[in-house]
Sequence to fold (1539 residues):
Amino acid sequence: MASLLEKRKAADGNQEAIVQVLPLGAGQEVGRSCIIVKYGGKTVMLDCGVHPGFYGLASLPFFDEIDLAEVDAMLVTHFHLDHCAAVPYVTGHTNFKGRVLMTHPTKAIVHTLLKDFVKVSKGGGTGEGLYTERDLDAAMERTEVIDFQQTLDLGGIRVTAYRAGHVLGAAMFMVEIGGMRLLYTGDYSRIPDRHMPAADLPEQRPHIVVVESTYGVSRHLPREEREQRFVQRIHAAVARGGRVLLPVVALGRAQELLLILEEYWERHPELHGVPIYQASGLARRAISVYQAYIEMMNDDIKRAFTVANPFHFKHISHLKSAAHFDDVGPCVVMATPSMLQSGVSRELFEAWCEDPRNCVIIADFAVQGTLARDILGNPSEVMTRNGVKVPLRMQVDAISFSAHADFPQTSEFLDALQPPHVVLVHGEATEMGRLKKALEQHAAALNIPRTLYMPKVTQAVLIEHHAECTAKVVGRLGQKAAAVGAGVRGLLVQSRGGGSTVMHHDDLPRFTKLHPGRVVQRQAMPLHRPFTEVRLALEMMFEGTQGTGDLGRVNATSSPTGKGQVLRIGDAVTLTYQPPEPGSGSSGGQAILEWCGGSDADMVADAAVAVVLQAAGQPPGLPAIEVLRHKALAAGDSEAAERAELGIVTALLGAQFGPARVDADQGLIFVEVDGQHVVINPKGGSVQCAHAALRGRVEKALERMHAALQPCDVSDI
Amino acid sequence: MAADGSGGATGVRFVPLLGVHSRQPLSFLLEIEGFTFLLDCGWNDAYDTLLLQPIVDVLPQIDAVLLSHSDLAHLGALPYLVGRRGLAVPVYATSPVHKMGQMVMYDQYLSRQAVSDFDVFNLDDIDSAFALMQPLRYQQNLTLGGKGAGIELTPFAAGHLLGGAVWRIRKGGEDYVYAVDYNHRKERHLSGTVLEAAFQRPALLITDACNALQTAPERPGKEQQLLDSVMATLRGDGSVLVPVDTAGRLLELVLLLERYWAEHRLTYPLVLLSAMAYSTLEFAKSQLEWMNEALVRNLGHARDNPFSTRFLKLCSSREELSHLPRGPKLVMATLPSLDAGFSRQLFIDWAGNPRNAVVFVAAAEEGTLAEHVQQVAAATQQQQQQQQQQAQQQAQQQAQGAPTMQLVRSRRVPLEGQELEDHLAAQQGEQEAAAAAAAAAEAAEERRQMAVDAAAAAAAKADGGGGGGLMSPRASGSVPRANSLAIGHLHSRRGAAAVVGQVLAPDGQPVEQLREPSSTAAEACLVEGFEVPRGAVRPMFPFEDEWEHVSHDEYGAGLDLADFNAAESTGKQVMNLAKVMESEMAAEAEAEEAGAPPDLPTKVESETITVTLRARVLQFDFDGLSDGRSMRTMLAHVAPRTCILVHGSAAATDAMAAHLRHDLAGLLATVHTPTAGQAVEVAAEPSYSLVLSDELMAGVRLHRIGDYQLAWLEGGVGPPADGSESQLPQLLPAAGAAGEAGYGGVFIGDVRLSELKQALAAVGIASEFHAGALYCAGHVVVKRRADGAEEGGGGGGLVLEGALSEDYYRIREVVYGQYHIC
Fold:
C-alpha cells in the first residue's frame, strides 16, 4: 500500500494533495472501528475500538500499519466497545502522543464501561487483559472533551462535533485540514427516537464522507409501529398475570425502552401495581450520566425536563442485586446480557420459560449461536445451563429498536451533503457491496458526482484533493487590491488560528505580537590614506551608488561625531570618515561603516570593507591617476581617460612585478623581472616575454586589471 | 445614525447606551457593516424605565441581541424590551444563560410581585423574551444569514457565571470581541475564561474596567474567612443571612458550603430560600458539561452529581423555612439587593438581633438597600474603631451605637369584602376590554409568533387603564397563557403519549388479542422491526457489556438463582424507595405552587417600620471576577488593536485605560473610553485576499515564531486558477526567478542582552556588562537601540559596534542567531 503512495508521491511530487483514508479496523467488517486519515502532514485517528469476536491482542485494530507517534489526534464517536475500547491500550502501551477527544457523556460513560471491560477481559480466561485499570484512568485523564456544534482547533486540524443520534453522546466528526473537509459519521441515525435527536446535517459540505454501512440496503419500520407493538405485548402479558423479561444491552437502547415503559405506565394507572425492574448495575450507574446530560438529548426530553427530569423514573426501580427481587406476581424486568448467554437475564429466562403467561421480548439484534436467536426459532423446549431440557411455553417476541441508519437515511443524508467521495466502513462485505451499488446507482440517476470506496482493513483509499490556500493582504500592502501582474513582496504570517496574512514587516506590531528586530552595525576601520582615495575606490566598485554625483558631500549633522564626511553606498550603507584629530598626532583617520543588518546590506557592507582595505593597500600614486581617469570619464575625454588607465595599469603592474616604465606615445609598458624583460601592450592585451611562465602571469594580471576597471552595478541594492 | 449612512455601511461603530464610566447595568450598540448588535441589555433593581430610554431610542435599528451573562445587569431589560417595547429580533446566548437567565427573571418578578404591584413586565413578557433565544454552545460557530450575511458569532467561556460568554463576532476575517465580566481563575464549578488563549490581536475588544482597582485576595484564604465568620455566628447561636443571586454565583457558594457541611458533618440547617430554588438546582445538575471538568470527573462511576446536595435544603417559601428546626441556621436567600424577595423579609426579621450576621458575597448595586446596609455597617465600624481609641466613652457609646433605618415592609394580602366585590366588577370590565383588544390585535397581526406578545401588551395596557392599584398576578385572563409559571404545568408529554395510546381499544381496555402467532420461522422474527435483505447474516453488531459467565455482581458477590425468590420484606424496601421519591416529587410540586402567587385577587399592604441594625454585617468578595492585575496581564496578552473600555467606575476606567495605553504602546493599539452615547468608529482595515499558488508555496520556508509561522513571500499576481472555488486572483512565483532576493532581510524578535551574553558564552566569547551595554571580546560593543531612533518603524533592536576584526564577524553571527530571520 505504502508503495503505491510512494509512487503517487513521486508522480506528482505533491503529497499534500492526496487524502489517505486507511481503515485499521471496520473495513468490510463490523467491529474494531479505527480509521486513519492523513492529509497535509496531519494524521487523525477516528475511533479506536476492539473487535468483539476476538480476544486480547487479536481484537485490536491493525496498529502496526502506521506509526502511532504520527497521529496528531484521536476522535472517539461514542461509548460502544467497538468504537472506544482500545483507547487505553493506545494511550498506555504504544508511542501514541496525540490528543484524545470525546463528547462529555461519552467520556463519562466510557470510563464506567471500560472499567467493566477491564474486569471482564481479565476474567475471560485469556490471562492478562489488554490494559489495566490504571491505564484506563490515565487515558481518561488525558481525554479532552468537545461539545456538540463546537469547533476546536488542534493545531491545524479543525474538529467540529455534530450529534449523531444513535446513543447518548454519540458524535459525528467533521475534520478540516488545510481546507479539506472529511465527515466521519461513526454510528448514526437520522431518525429521532424517545431520547435521542436525529443526527445533525452539517451546514458545511464535506469533500469526503466516511459513513457506516451496518444495515446496508435494508429499511426500518416506523418507530411508532415498533413502540406500539412493544407496549402491547407487555401490557397483554402483565394483564394476564405474566412476567415480562427484556434482555437488553445495559446502555443505549435500554434507556429508550425505559422511557417508553415509564410513559406507558404513567398513562395506565391500572398497571401501577406492576413493578418494572432494571437489573443492570452498569445501567444504574450510568443513569446519573443520562440524568446529567439532558441537554444532549432531543427536544421532547428537554421539554419534559422543564417539568421534571424524565430520567427520574417513577415506575422503575433498580434492582441492586438479585436478593432484592421479589418474584411474586406480574412484573417487567430488564436484565443483561441481551443474548441470554448467562447472567441475570438467563436465570430469569430459565425460571420463567415454562409459564405460558410470561413473555420475553428480544429488542436487540439476535446473534446466531445464542439462546436469544435459538428461541426465535420457536422450539418446543430449551436446554438450561444445568443441561436439563425444559419446555418453552412463554411467549417469545423480537422487536428491533436499533439506532443505525438504514438505506433511506444514508441515501438522503448523502444526497443532502453531496460529497464527491464516500468511503464505506463498519459493515459486512456483502451488505456493503449492495449499499455501494445502490448508492452509485442512486447518484447516477440524480446526476450527482459521487465516487464510492469500500476499503478492506489496512487497504488505503487515496483521494486527490486540491485545497486552496488563501491569504489576506493587510496593512500598507493591502491598501489597494493588486492588479494582475503586480508584484507582492512581504511576510506571510500564519497565526495559530489558522488564518494567513501577508504584510509588510513594519506592520508586524499592528497585526501580530511580533516586532521586527534590527541590528544596527557600526564597524570602524583605521585609515591611513587620504579619504579621497578610498572614496574613489568605492565609486569605482559601486556604480550607481546613490551619491555618485555628489560624492564627498559633507553632512555634518548625521555624522556621529558631529564632523566628518558621509558617503552613502546604495540605500543601505553609509560610510563616515573621521579625519585624524589634529592634536593627537596620529597619522590616519577612521572610517566608520554603518548599516542595518540583513542579507543584502551585509553583502554590500562586506564588499565595501574589502574595497576600503584594498584601497588602503594600493600602490602610492595610483589614486591620483584614478582621479584623473574619473575626471576624464566624467568630461567625456576618452583619450585622457585612456592615458589615465595606462597609468593605472602601470602602477598596478609596478606594484606586482617591480619597477615599471611607460612609453606613453606607443602605449607600451616595460617591466623587468629578475632580468627578464617584458613588453606589455595593455590596449591590445598582448604581452611579449621570453620567459613563458612569466608571460602567463603578467597576462593574467592584466586581464584582471581590465576587469577591475569596469565598475559593477549596485543600483538595485 | 441610519444603517445606510455614509460611514455606517463599511466600518464598525460602537455606541455605549448604558454602563460606561459607572457600574450601571450594561448595554451597548455595535454596528458592523450595517448590521447592529445590542450587546447585553441590563437593568437594575430600581426598574426605572427612564434608564432604558437610550435603548428604546435605538430599538428599531437593532438586528440581534447578544447576551453575555445570566444576571440582572446583563439581561434584565430583555422582558421589558420584548414585552412592552416590541423588540422582536433573535437573541443569542449560551444555553445556561438562557435557562438560568429565565430563572433570574422569574425570581425577580415573583419577588417584586409579592410586595408591590409590579407592572414593568410580567411572566408572559419573560416567556416571550426567552422564546426569542437561540441557545448556542461554547465555540459553536453560528453564521448569520440575510442582512448579517458573512457574520459569524461564537461564544467562548467567560468564567464568571455558568454559561457566561465572551462573544466573538467575525466578519471578513476580522475579530470583534465583546468580553465583559470574565474570570481567569478556575473555580469549583467553572473553569476559567479562555479569553487569553482564544484571541490574538483582535481588531476590536470591548471589555470592562470594573475591577481595575481591585486586587483579589487568595481564594483559599477568602473562602476560609467566609466560612470562619459563618461558623462563628452559628456557634454563637445566631443565624446567618446570605443574600444571593438566583442562579449565578449561588452555584459556587452552594458547592463551597455543601462541601464544608459535609466535611464537618454540621447539623445547622443549610438553606437555599428562593422561589426558583428547585429549578435552579435541577438545571445545574443537567448542565455539567458547561462546568469545570474536575467536577464531572467522577460522574460516571461515582454516581455523584455535584448538585445532588445532601445538606442543602431547598425552600421556596417562608412557610417551608418555618418547618425547619428552630435555632441558628444559614439561609441563602434571593434577591441580592435586599430590595425585595425573601432576603429582605429575613433581613427585617433578623437585623435586630446582634447574634445574627448578614454576609454579603457580592458588591452591592448602587441605590439598593444592600448598598445602604453595607455603608451603614462600614460607617458604624469606623465609628467604633474611633471610639475604641477613646476608650473612656465606650460604655456610653454602645448604648446608642446601633444604627437604625426606616424600611417599607410590604406584603400581598387577599382582597376581602367590599374591596373584593369592587375588584371583581372592575376585572370583568377589563376582561371584556382586553378580549376586544386581543381580538383586534390578533386580527391585525398576521405574524403568528408575535400574536401572544401583542395580546399580552394589549392586556397590560387595559390593566393599566382600568385597574389602578389592584391587579391580580394573573390579571390578563383573556390572554392565552402558554406557560404561566416558571416551571411545571408547562408541557405535558402529550405528543409521545399519543403514540402509545393507540394500543388501547376505543373503550379504553387494553387490547389483548393482538398477540401474534409466534410460530413464524426464525427469519420472520428477524425481519420484524427492519427489513433484512436475503443473505444478510448479522445486520447489527451485538454489543455486550457483560461477558459470558457472569456469576458475580458488580460488588463481587456471587449471583444465586435462589436470591431471586427472596423474602417479601426486601421487596417492600424497593417500593418504599419509590414512595419516598414520589413524596419528594409531590413536595416539589407543592413548593412550586407555594412559590406562585395565589390566583385570588390580592392587594399590597405596606407599612413603614424601623429596623435597628444590630446584626453583624460582613462582606466578602465572592464575585468571581478577575482582579485588576490579572486583567492587565490578560489584555496585554490578547493585545487588541483597538480597545474600548466600558462598565466600571470613572476612576477604574481611567486607570485601566492608562495601564492599557502603557502596556500596548509598542503594539500600536488604541484605547477608547467613550461616554454614554458617544460613538466610537473603528476604521476598517483595507485588505484584499489572494490565493497562494502551490508553486509559490513550494518555495516558501516557514519559520515558527511563538504562536506564528512566518515566511518571506515574493510573487506576482496572476488571474484565478481554473476551477478555483473562490475565484480569487492567484499569487504566483516572481517571474525573475530571483525568489530569494528579499530573503534574510527581515529580522523578527526582541533579543535580551542577557540572553545574548549566554549565547556568546556558549561559543566561547567572553562578554561583560558595562553601563547598560555588553562588551564582547574587548572590542565589540552590543547595546540596545534607543527607542524612537531614526529610520522609523518603532524602536527596539540592537546596535553592534566595533572595530573591524575577526571577532566582529563571529559576534555578529551569534547576534543573528538570536533572531528569527525571514
